[in-house]
# Entry
Amino acid sequence: MNDEKSLLNNAQWSEVLAQALPYFKQWVGKIVVVKYGGNAMLNEDLKKAVMEDIVLLNTIGIQVVLVHGGGPEINNMLERVGKESKFVNGLRYTDAETMEIVQMVLTGKLNKDIVGILLQQGGKAVGLSGVDSGLLRAKKINKDGADLGFVGDVTEVHPEIVLSLLDQGFIPVISTVAMGEQGDTARYNINADTAAAKIAVALKAEKFVQLTNVPGVLRNVEDPDSLIKRIERTAIPSMIATGVISSGMIPKIECCMEALNGGVPRTHIIDGRVPHSLLIEMFSDRGIGTMIH
# Structure
């Protein structure tokens, strides 16, 4: 297609900007927590687009907190050192050696890679782990009686360091490694979705967004056009019972419910594979993905 023909004309640009302006006003000064994971972390072009979105949000005065996972990268590193990835009831079994690798990949590599991209895009970013300033405290969990090693459930969030950084205009980038409840030397691997939801509650965020690798909640998982755009929280139990919400979508919905029950007004599951999906969600009437409210 001819480049000139593919560009929006002035009237279309005016409509886009006019539609976005009220949302700019609505979100300036508000805290938005974004959980970043899935394929959007593996594709460099998509990663750049996500970081551009976050820097733009930060530039206009929206306080963005980015919480990231890193499952595929952890799997790759375990494979490189000849250690098999083991999962119990859907959660990674984390022995002491695996915990060292988890901490190295999440806090040492991925976290700093993300901060670096944000800086390259002109943003102000600071990398944190759940250990820094005692941000996340956790206890060892046993799921259905199974020993998961150093896998923890967040029991406390101490958000003061994050709030301080936000007040100074920084974008906090958080990896979800936590310390023990008593401040001991133990480190725990925390599910990034659940950690992000609890961080959103502690920060009294206005919006909690999970960037993932699916379009959202689908009535038919084989049909991307069957996206359900809005779900009221009261409908969730029946949708799980009937199988509309199933499999890997259940824990994502549970995280949204955790945030909603903690006072976060809006929660979203959106497709991180769509370039600039975060901007579409934040600044347009059409939105993207599924909102649970």
Observations:
- The CA atoms of residues 222 and 263 lie 33 Å apart.
- The radius of gyration is 19 Å.
- Residues 96-120 form the longest helix (25 residues).
- Confidence is low (pLDDT under 50) at residues 1-5.
